[in-house]
Amino acid sequence: MATYTINAPEYHEDAIRSLKQRGRAPDIAIMDSSVYQFCGRIAGLPEPRGDYTPRTPAGELIAALPAEADLRDLETQATYAREDLYLTLDSGVRALSDARAGGVRQAATSGSARPDFSLPERVEGGEVDFGESSPIRIRLEE
């Protein structure tokens, strides 16, 4: 049996958990979220260890963001970060200053209180593989 929903991924995940608790977990769950999002919500996000020293603008941005930040689109995150905001994995928008004040752990940044979050321009003309790939299988165990 497979499950799919047109509702939000969070709703689908809650429904799967509920089915599992009743001993009726599906064999397959088709999700409309990335593996990163799904695993982050189900298994929790790793906390930054604080031993990373960024050497690029993208690294500065990643180091300045809390663990719950959505890292799939750094260009968009950079735009938000310039306004003291960040996108979360659950599609929310939060203030960076609130995350810092609220004790949300972040990796250590290498210097200034307000880093430059400008990313290099995207290079055009690269090869993109549109071929089929095998599905990613994730097994949830108690």
Task: Give an account of the 3D structure.
The chain is mainly α. Helix content is 31%, strand content 7%. It has five helices and four strands. The chain has helices spanning 9-21, 35-43, 57-64, 74-81, 96-101; strands at residues 2-3, 28-29, 85-87, 93-95. The strands form two sheets. The protein has a two-stranded parallel ribbon. Strand 3 (85-87) and strand 4 (93-95) form a beta hairpin. The chain is globular and about 50 Å long. The protein starts with a strand and ends in a 41-residue tail after the last helix.
Please give a quick description of this structure.
With 142 residues, the protein is mainly alpha-helical. It has helices at 9-21, 35-43, 57-64, 74-81, 96-101, and strands at 2-3, 28-29, 85-87, 93-95.
Which descriptor suits the 3D outline?
globular
- The spatial strand order of the largest sheet comes to 1-2
| Count of DSSP strands | 4
Largest beta-sheet characterization:
2 strands, parallel
What is the distance, rounded to the nearest whole angstrom, between the alpha carbons of the first and last residues? 20 Å
Share of helix, binned: 25-40%
Structural class: mainly alpha
Low-confidence stretches: 104-113
Strand content: 5-15%
Order of helices and strands: EHEHHHEEH
Q: What is the CA-atom radius of gyration, in angstroms?
A: 18 Å
Total helical elements? 5
Could you report the average pLDDT, rounded to the nearest whole number? 75
